[in-house]
Amino acid sequence: MNADVAVIGGGPVGLAAALYVVRSGLTPVVLEPRAGTIDKACGEGLMPGGLQALAELGVDPPGHDLRGIRYVSRRRVAEADFTAGLGRGVRRTTLHEALRAAVDAAGVEVLTFGAADVTQDATTVTISTDDAGRPGPILTTSWAVAADGLHSPTRRSLGLDRDHGTVRRLPTGGRSAVRTADARPPRRYGLRQHYGIRPWSDHVEVHWAATGEAYVTPVAVDLVGVAVLTRHRNPLSDSLAEFPQLRERLDGAPVVTSVRGAGPLRQRTTRRVAGRVLLAGDASGYVDALTGEGISLGLAHARAAVAAITAGDPESYERSWRAATRRYALLTHTLLRVTRPAWGRRLLVPAAATLPPVFRGAVNELARPGR
Fold first, then answer.
1. Sheet (strand 45-46) strand order
2. 3.40.50.1220, 3.40.50.300, 3.50.50.60, 3.90.1720.10: which CATH number matches 5-163+264-367?
């Protein structure tokens, strides 16, 4: 096989990376062990910037128009419309099918193998593949983009995971004390399911409760996705009990899909580049799904990674990655910190409702295209 870039992972970010490789004049090959359409826990709301990035790739998935974001807590509501155009609620499977169709039309080869081992030298990347537990073919390419998800095996094999349990020695009154890194945010988990009900809003609704949030995204004229982010690994039905207004809305609506889960959400990396291998999307590190920018951010990563490869300057991707991720990380870290104490969660929506310019500015800062 004659390919310049191996893309490890055939989800939306990996497929987008393959399309960017084609546009750069190089030849990609995609490694994805799961055949067919891939589903996963996802909020399924595309920000205007993400929708624009897809359009630039010639991808226009069907869905439900989104005008903005609405925060809900008991009787208080804060609402902000997008100023850069409409977003779109799109089923994860629909997005995958649209990107896969574009990749197929571009003549990109997608191999149903996993990446078992990645080694490299000064000029090449060698990937030993896995075929359902049996050795597959060995690929040799000039570069690799790893877009293999939140718990990326490639990231781990390259030693780019950052240890969450680091022990630090801190000064206390002139003495030293050992303390684990307990200041990090608590682990959070996501669950998602779809209900056959007509959307009651053209906004993504975020319902706030004591220990988590529920995200309601219209994805079709008769379908809404409900995703819950929480610190507790409870069944979805137990988690939804914290959102009585939402439970009332969904009462009697048929459940259309099975529950999908993801987590723990926070994943940290030491670097995004290891020689000729670049990490993109969730594989490159993840803070939280709180701001709903995952797909848009992943597309920006894919574009920047391929640009660095085309320039023959992989280290430039570290700078591009930080630039693309900066506003997402800042706003997400800030929101997580503010809402960690119970009083912070109680006050967030009233504060957003009282200060609409601030809320509108934050929403549209995340909604703009990532470059």
1. 45-46, 87-89, 64-66
2. 3.50.50.60
Residue type (1 letter), 234? N
Phi and psi angles of residue 343, each rounded to the nearest 5 degrees, phi first: -65, -35
Domain segments of the chain as ranges: 5-163+264-367
What would you report as the CA-atom Rg of the chain, rounded to the nearest whole angstrom?
Answer: 21
d(CA 50, CA 90): 12
Distance CA 328, CA 298 (A): 11
Strand partners, 138: 128
Q: Who contacts 203 (Cβ-Cβ below 8 Å, separation ≥6)? A: 66, 67, 68, 69, 70, 79, 81
User: Is 80's pLDDT higher than 70?
Assistant: yes
Rounded to the nearest 10 degrees, how much is the dihedral formed by the CA atoms of 233, 227, 7, 109?
120
pLDDT, tens digit, 9 for 90 and up, residues 94-133:
999 999 999 999 999 999 999 999 999 999 999 999 998 8
The whole-number pLDDT of residue 342 equals 80
Confirm if 8 and 153 have CB atoms less than 8 A apart.
no
Instruction: Output the six-digit token pair for 6.
Output: 């191996």
What pLDDT does residue 2 have? 81
Measured in degrees and rounded to the nearest 5, phi and psi for residue 22 equal -60, -45
Tokens of 35: 């055949």
Contact between 283 and 215 (Cβ < 8 Å):
no
Checking if the pLDDT of 81 tops 60, the result is: yes
Helix, strand, coil abundance in the chain, percent, nearest 5: 35, 30, 35
Written as one letter, the residue type at 312 is G
Q: How many CA atoms lie within 13 A of 326 on its CB side?
A: 7
Distances (CA, A) of 19 to 8, 128, 224, 240: 14, 23, 29, 39
CA-CA-CA-CA torsion sign (155, 156, 158, 161): positive
More confident position, 40 or 303? 303
Question: What is the average pLDDT value for the chain, to the nearest integer?
Answer: 88
Check: CB of residue 138 under 8 Å from CB of residue 127.
yes
